[in-house]
Amino acid sequence: MAANVCIPVFEGPFDVLLQLVTDHKLDVYDIPIAEVVDRFVAEMSARRPLELHVATEFLVIAAILVEMKSRKLLPGPDAVDPDDELCGFEARDRLLARLLELQAYAAASDAFAVLMEHAARSVPRTAGLEAPFRELAPDLLADVSPADVAAAFARATTPRPVPVVDLLHVMVEPVTVSEALAELADRLPGMGQSTFRLLTAECTTRMQVIVRFLALLELCKQGRITIDQGQTFGDLQVRWLGDARDLAPVGTVVPTEEYDG
Known about the structure:
mainly alpha
């Protein structure tokens, strides 16, 4: 929460007071700095706990007002425009930000220096194999010629072929339910009653059997046939009831796979 100031010429947040002064809407001569500081100290004393960011913001704004008022009160060769003063403050803030960045880089370099100092205390093991075991170590480059090294490099740097998925073995047989529906509606009236096994005897793929079954379900839903199964895992008995109803339009194309029996 920003600090408020209450003086005869202004009442409100302290940063708004500075904005009014810089916009030439309020004369810095009319601001009693001492009274403002006293009221701010009284207000901050009433706040518990102390809000450090509010206090520091007040100190910065109060310092700017004191500097602006002192420059106007003290004699000088030329009058200083408040906008020029603010430009100087911005340059000072940028310089301060760069100094903080340099300080952060210096701290990071100090941290790296400490890490390098700790790493320097580590000593690698320089001792090799003991004398009895030196002759037992295999020679990794035995019987390896420069041509072998060049061939190994060529194999390692040769781009690998892009894997290709071969789909030639996948056979797609478009079988529509509407075609099977029309065929069954043409066959069943002459047969009267039949079985599902007999109606699918000429099917050679699994999807053809599935499509025939879907077509029978559609005819049963339309009330044109009845399907009955006398016993568990028995043959499905299909009986034709009549073709009083029109065939519903069915045009679904079903992807197939081979029927293995």
